[in-house]
Amino acid sequence: MRALQALLLLFALGMAFGQLKQREAPPEQFPDGLIDEDEDLFLEKQYAFNPIQAKKEVKVGKFYAKKGNHRAAAGRYLEATRWNPNFSDAYWRLAQSRDKLKQASLALEAYRKFVRLESAGKRVGEAVARIAVLEPEVKAAVSPGPVSPDPVSPDTVSPDTVSPDNAP
What we know:
By secondary structure, the chain is mainly α. It has a domain at 51-142: Tetratricopeptide repeat domain (Serine Threonine Protein Phosphatase 5, Tetratricopeptide repeat), CATH 1.25.40. The chain has seven helices and no strands. The longest helix has 19 residues, at 124-142. The chain is elongated and about 80 Å long.
């Protein structure tokens, strides 16, 4: 009896695998007048003013931040700023998360936006202090320091210093 069941199972699996087909690649160009039915899946997300969604994104971001996943938290806070561009709390939290991720230029941008939105609040002083600390860091990272010559470059090696023992 078991042998018959195993045989039927193998037969059914063989039929199932035989019916699977390779998916054809979609054509690069569609003929005139035809559009891809999945075109809406490839479009970028459109954001409209939605403060309720922004608050939900901040709430989820807080959860991630509490768990220590500041990368995910920053992503949620960024989404919140897209749903509500005037949501200062989202910018504050975004700046804090990016600061913890050592993304100084992005944190600086978020702190500046926060200060612009909330000019008189409890956290503005702390944001201004962080801006003062981050600005020199960002400027130092962007502007290259003095370049020292390579001690082994062809320009610094003269024919007098090259001997058969230390020739490259």
